[in-house]
Each structure stands twice: as structure tokens, then as C-alpha cells.
Amino acid sequence: MTETVSGSAARRGRGSRKGLKVERIFTTPGVHPYDTVRWERRDVVMTNWRDGSVNFEQHGVEFPDFWSVNAVNIVTSKYFRGALGTPQREHSLKQLIDRVVKVYVDTGLAEGYFASEEDAEIFDHELKYALVHQMFSFNSPVWFNVGTKSPQQVSACFILSVDDSMESILDWYKEEGIIFKGGSGAGVNLSRIRSSRELLSSGGTASGPVSFMRGADASAGTIKSGGATRRAAKMVVLDVDHPDIVEFIETKAREEHKIRALRDAGFDMDLGGKDIVSVQYQNANNSVRVSDEFMRAVENDGEFGLRARLTGEVVETVKARDLFRQMAQAAWECADPGIQYDDTINDWHTNPESGRITASNPCSEYMSLDNSSCNLASINLLKFLRDDDTFDVDTFVKLTELIITAMDISITFADFPTEKIAKTTRDFRQLGIGYANLGALLMATGHAYDSEGGRSLAATITSLMTGTAYRRSAELAGIVGPYNGYARNAEAHKRVMRKHAAANDQIRTLDEMSRAVHAAATKQWQQCLKIGEKNGYRNAQASLLAPTGTIGLMMDCDTTGIEPDLALVKFKKLVGGGSMQIVNHTVPRALKKLGYQQEQIEAIVEYIAEHGHVVDAPGLRPEHYEVFDCAMGERAISPMGHVRMMAAVQPFLSGAISKTVNMPEHATVEDIEKVYFEGWKLGLKALAIYRDNCKVGQPLSAAKKADKSAEAQADKRPAEVRPVRKRLPKQRPATVTRFSVAGAEGYMTASTYPDDGLGEVFLKLGKQGSTLAGVMDAFSMAISISLQYGVPLETWVEKFTNMRFEPAGMTDDPDIRMATSVMDYIFRRLALDHLPYETRAELGIFTAEERAMQVNGEDPATLHADAELDRETLAQSAEISKPAEQPRPAAESRPQSSMEVIESRQGRTADAPLCLTCGTKMRPAGSCYVCEGCGSTSGCS
């Protein structure tokens, strides 16, 4: 059984303290927030697309009509509680939110957080409104556990401790196992364990921390394979002055060499392969904890001492640059180890009198005392961008207050996996408010991610969030008291608050939006310092930036955490089971903000849909290219662009930032050294890199597997099958279209088969008997014969749209205002008339009405849903018989996720793993990966 600790807390003597007065933000007295939303029923059927098996199925679930298919699928399959097929199974988002919010409100009332029951009711309604409208989300453990019969665990992030004794090491194994079993992750610093160069009391030589890492890694792998289908998320840290640091640095790089050798020998070394289990140390992220002393020695090309754990004496002196190079070399080979900057971390530590910060959670954003935990919540920033492109500061502040209040209440009722973690967390009440959709917000407002303006806006928003959070924490301290460890650490805590406020004063604003946010942030920090001086603070920590993987999908965010957009074209599931590739909705909004007219926006969006990038897009000024730079693709953001963004927001976070700096395959060891060194110079707390294709242990893409299979079966191919021409009947339906492109007029006759499908096209352009007319007649016959032999129309559309030659320009067709040539117009018109919406969406061809809906953030697929339903009803009522469905191939060539869309555009395989639950290629989310298909993550929730 899992060890748990009771979440009930003794009431404090509050004397004459009064509870919070809660103001309404979104709701109206007498109107329940659910009644302001249009609800609809949907069926959730989730399959593993590679083999067609059904992973999850629940019919008739109830959600708001504006929630995407992805969000509905993920919440239904991951967060609804109760056995499937029983009355106890949750079937509505209302039930889920009611279950969670009720516990928060009841606890808040019982513990004196609210001035009256009316304030508690307002708190209840405001939380429900914000959650239903995807304005923020708690971390996954809240949705899993709160309000159920399970232990009320609310934290996703844990930090453990290990001392230099076998009892402590075995406790570490046990505590990690309990946390992994619950679906969370933990980090630990092993530097207290004596090195392999030191003696035991019995006279023998110590094993050293790396040997004990082997046992912990095996344990994590076993729990992973025996429980949920996700990797056990863990972080292992070792101080740079530990005598075994070189062995630690090289641990995973050596295993990568082993993977390559075994792969070349024919063993199955793909992720999830049967032979990969023989490789060690793969279940943890490794990080070296470096000091300022060491980094200065690197800077000055000096020497550095490695010290015994028991005596502190120097056992070896090394060249600092050589050791630094070994770190970068290992990271170049396998992405590990990352780096954590110890003195920077502890300089921003609010509780130094209670112990140093020695480690982090697996994704490196939570950094606090040993044996502690943190519950997280993230705000959807794009929800605060008004239609007039201003940031809704007041609403953002009020929602931040609401969230911090709820998060603090959760510590009061929460359960924890061990007594040590329970005590530390209740004594220091660490919180982790953060945000998602920063990349989408920057693009939508015309800010390049890697620009002074983008960094300034990000810094001001982060400062406003943390300033508001700590101001509310100080107000809560005046109502229910400061955290237990505050009195001992009061001066240090207030010193860190002043550091945050001083950093806020140093922000350089460059536009009206960032100036407005900065003015509000300055006000919040002034109030924070004033109220905190009087009351103290309720929470030792308040903010960090988490990966927001699963909850980012729940909130329908385009970008996760602090990340930029992954790519301009992404994969979207549709109601009814279809899917399409779309240009991100933030692109047209950004173009409008940059001053482009509607016709220009449509042309640029069509170009992006075709090419996946903006280079040479018609009418787009080159100075605006940077606004559309993404994490991957034609114009990928440089590694230092990511580092500079992290540095811009780090001074305004209690914790750190979950983010991996992606580097191109051709990056050098020196490039990695530069990134690690600049991270220290710029004041980051932690940094990790990933060089493309540095790891072998990734799954083969479906295309690669198909290639190998084809090679293996080359001598077993069946006899050649020739296509058969399907001629049109003598009488067939046809349409005639008169068109004009830049003043050049023409006619197009398109004939179809009686049972649907284009089979013939005739074009008239130019005078009868002219060379042009003859060429068009021949072209028409070639197209018609190819269609009758089964060449799909979409193939012709792909080839001839965007073809450029004169005449080109304006047309008289309201759906196609601009054409780059007559061929471009003809095949766009044919696509609009004869291809289904999903296919056209993948090709980036839309009617005027559909494009207008996209600009307004609506889903054009809804235009076609009713027509499709009518067709299905007609087919069922007529009892139309159909031939038996052919077996579905094990793998389809069409992309099934945004990562596969990117792969298809770039022509190469991305380094993301396949989801072990549904087979979809995952995408990066901070330093983890998240599956768009089912919401599974490769790290902490």
C-alpha cells in the first residue's frame, strides 16, 4: 500500500482576523457560470492509429461547444473518475469541476479563508467560470485525486534527499517508487554519498553514487513497465566538486555508445524495443550542480578541487575548462548532463536558514528544500489578449489572486506520500503558478520571440504574475497566518522580494502593451513589499514555469509553457473523427496586427499552408519574417534566442523554467559550452540542451519501418497491376464556370460521374484555332484521361496551385480573390467544387466564408457538419448496402500529429518519441514530451 499522511491541519488561533472578501470577475449574481455556456454531447473513441485498436471509448460526454476534440478526449480519458460503463463514471465536465472545486471551497470556509458564505459562493462561481473557459488549469494530480476516495495528492513535483548511509539510500529507492507509482516525478542530489575514492568505516572502499544510481534506475524502469505506460520521471543531481563527477558526467554518454554498438549488431534498440532494457541510466535526467567558483575557474582557465564528502579535503585538482569540456562533450553525445547554477539558485532562496536548495524536480522548474513538494497551476495567456490587441491587465491580476488562494487552500487538505514531505510542504507551503501560450501571445501581437520587444513583454507579464501572487500571499498571511518557517527566514524572504522588485524596475519597455503591463507590475510589487513587511508571507515560493503538457492540451493552448510555436502548420482533429492540417490561428491575427489587408492575409496564409513557412510568401515584408520564427522549420529560433528568453523572465520566478534549448545536429561541443556559460552569465538557474539526432534510442518512423519492410520483401512482390480506365457515361452531370484572371477570360467545363467524382475537364482560353487554345485542349484531354485512370484530383491540385506565370492577379471569383496564374485559379476552383473540406483544409484551400471563420477563431468544419449528418441519415434510411470495409493498414502515410506534420514539411524524422499509449508521435513540452493524441507525458504532469 502507498504510504499517505493525513491532509487535515489543526486550525490556527486567528483572533480578530477577517477572511477574504472575494470580488466577482466574470460572473453575475444569480446566474450560475454553467448557464452562460452552450453544452453539447459528444462521443469519445480513441484508437491507436498504427494498429487500429481502441484504447478508450465513452459515449455521450458533455462539454462546452467551444472545446476542441483533443481537449474533450484528453479530459474524458485521463481525468473523469469512476469505472467505465457504470453509473458512477463521470460523464460531464461539470461533474469533474464540481468534484474538485467543492473541496477547495469547503476547505476554505472551514479554515477561515473567506469573510462570509457569500464570498465562498463567489469564489466557487469564479473558479468554475475560469476552468470551464480554459483560462487556467490546476496540474494533473488535482484532477486525478481531489474529491475522490483516493489520497488527496495535489502535487506533481517532489524533491527528496539522500544521506551517506545504506538506510537512507534504501529509503530513497522506496520513496521514489511510491511517487512514481502515483504518476509524479522526483529529483534528488546524491552529493552527500561518499565517493568511490573514500573508505568505509569497515575499511573497504565506498561504491560511490553512480553505482547506487544503477539500482534506482532499474527500480524506476520496473515500476514504469509494471504500472502506467509512461516513463518514471526523475532527476539526479551531483555537485561539480564531487570526486566521482567525471564518472557521473560520462554515465549516459557511455550507455549511448553501447546502444549504437548493439544496434549495429542487429539488436532492437528503439525506444520500447525488447533489447533497450539492457541499457542503464535511461530513466533519469542528469544534471551537474556548478558553483560560481567553478564557473570563474572556467572563465579564467584555472584549476578546481574535487573534495571528499566526509572530510571536505581536496582529493584531486583538475583543470576547470577540461571538466567543463567533458560536460559539453557528453551533452553533445546524448543530451545529458544538464547544468544547474548553485549560487544563483541559493541567492534567490527565501529560506536559507532552513537549508540550502540542492536539487530540483525532474523538469528543473521546481527548486526548494529537500523533502518537499509543489502543486502547480498554469494560466492561458492568450485568454487575456483583447480584440483590440491590448492585454487585459486587471482581469489577469484578479485571476492570479483567485488561483493563488485556491492553490494555498489545497495544501491544507492535501495528502503526501511521506511524513517528511508532508511536514516540509505544510511548513513552507510552496506554490508554482505559471503560464502557457506565451509563444502564441507574442506572435499574435506581432512580437518576434527572439527580440527585445518579445522579451520585454514576457518579462513584464511574468513580473506581474509573481508580484500579484506574492501580494496575495501576504494578504493571506494576514488572514490565516504566514508559513511556519517564515519567522526564522523573514529577513531572507524579504530580501528576495526586494530583489524581484528591483529586477522589475530594470525592465526596459519598448511598446505601449509592455508599458501598461509593467506599470501594473510595479504597483503590485510596491503593494507586495508593503503588505509583506506587515503580515509576512503565506508561501515560501509562488511561481515557476512548468511544461504544461497535458493541461496545455486541456486548455487548447497553441504553445506550452515558455515555448515558442513549434511550427506554423499543425495537426487538428475534427468532430466526427476526421483531421486536418491547419495554419495556426495566431498567424492571421499577427498579420492583421502588422498592418496587412484581408486579401494579403489570405494569400500569405495559403502560402504557409502550402510551404509550412513564410519565406518568399507573397506580399510579406522580410522584416516581418522574424515574427513567425518557430522552434522548428525553415526559420528556427537560434539556441541563444531560447536562452535569452529564459534570462528575461528568470528574475521574476521563485523557481526556474522547464525548457530544453534545442540545437541543430551540426552544433559543436564549443556551441554547447557557450550555451552553458552564457546561461550562468545571464543569471539562469538551470539549463538543458538537446542536439538533433544525438540519441539512437528513438523509435523508427513508420516510413523507415515501411522502407525496411519493403526491402525485406523485395523478392516477394506480386505481379504488376495496371490501372483500368473508368469512362464517363454518355450523359453525365457537368458545371460550366466562367472566370477572369487579371482580365484574361476563360471557361471551364467540369463533368462528374453519376455516383460522384470528377472525371473530365475542358478548358477554353484564347481564340479558337490559336496555339494557346490548342495547348489548352491537349492539356484538358490529358487531365481528363488521368482522372479516369484514377489519379486523384488532389494530386493535380497539389502540383498546379501556386504555379506562377502571367496572367496573374485579381479574379472575379469571391472565393479566390488572387491567383498566381490561370492554372492556379483553375485547380483551386476545382478543389473547392469537388474535394471534401478536410482534404481542402490539408491543401490550404478555403472558401471566403471558411477563411472568415478562421480569422475569427472559429472552426470552419462546423459549416460542413450538418450536411455530412444529413448524408449519413439519408444513407441509413435508404439502407444503402456497402461492400465490406478493407482491412486498415498498420500505418498510414498521412500525418497523425503536429510533429508528423512538421516531419512531412521538413522531409526528415524529428527526435520526438512515439506515445506508448496510442502510438502518436509526441511533441516537446518544456523539457518533457506530450502526446496530442491522448495527453500522456514523458515526465511530470
Automatic annotation (TrEMBL):
Catalyzed chemical reaction(s): a 2'-deoxyribonucleoside 5'-diphosphate + [thioredoxin]-disulfide + H2O = a ribonucleoside 5'-diphosphate + [thioredoxin]-dithiol
Cofactor: adenosylcob(III)alamin
InterPro entries (alphabetical): RdRp_reductase_class-2, RNR_2_N, RNR_lg_C, RNR_NrdJ/NrdZ, TSCPD_dom
Domain Ribonucleotide reductase large subunit C-terminal stretches: 155-690
Residue ranges constituting the TSCPD domain according to the UniProt record: 729-832
Listed PANTHER family: RIBONUCLEOSIDE-DIPHOSPHATE REDUCTASE, VITAMIN B12-DEPENDENT RIBONUCLEOTIDE REDUCTASE
Record protein name field: Vitamin B12-dependent ribonucleotide reductase
Species of origin: Actinomadura rubrobrunea
Gene: nrdA
